[in-house]
Amino acid sequence: MSVDTLDQGRSDSAAPVAPAIELIGVSKSFGPVQANKDISMTVAKGAIHGIVGENGAGKSTLMSILYGFYKADAGEIKINGVKTEITDSHAAIAAGIGMVHQHFMLVEPFTVLENVIMGAEDGPLLRPSLAKARKVLTQLAKEYELDVDPDAIVGDLSVGFQQRVEILKALYREADILILDEPTGVLTPAEADHLFRILENLKAQGKTIVLITHKLREIMAITDTVSVMRRGQMTATVPTAETSPSQLADLMVGRHVLLEVEKGAPNPGEVLLEVKNLSATDFQGVEKLKSISFNLRAGEILGVAGVAGNGQTDLLEILGGISPATAGEVRVKGEPIDLSKKASAALRRERGIGHVPEDRHQRGLVMPFQTWENTAFGYHNKPEFSGPMGLANQKAMLADAKEKIEKFDIRPTSPFLPASSYSGGNQQKIVIAREIENNPDVLLVGQPTRGVDIGAIEFIHKQIIALRDSGKAVLLVSVELEEILALSDRIIVMFDGVIQGERTPENTNEQELGMLMAGMNPEGTS
Amino acid sequence: MELLQLMDSAVRLATPLLLAALAGLYSERSGIFDIGLEGKMLIAAFTAGAFSGIAGMPIAEGGWGWTYGMAWFGLFTAIIASVLLSLIHGFASITLRGNQLISGVAVNFFAAGTTVLIGQEWFRAGGQTPSLRGAQRFEPITLPFADAVSEVPVIGPVYADLISGHNIVVYIAILAVPLTWWILFRTRFGLRLRAVGENPGAVDTAGISVVKQRYAAVVIAGILCGLAGAYLSLGTSAAGFVKDMSAGKGFIALAALIFAKWQPRGVLFAALLFGFLEAIGNKYQSVDIGAFVIPVQFMQALPYILTVVILAGFVGKAIPPKAGGEPYVKER
Question: Which residues of A touch B187 (CB under 8 A)?
Answer without folding.
Answer: 124-126
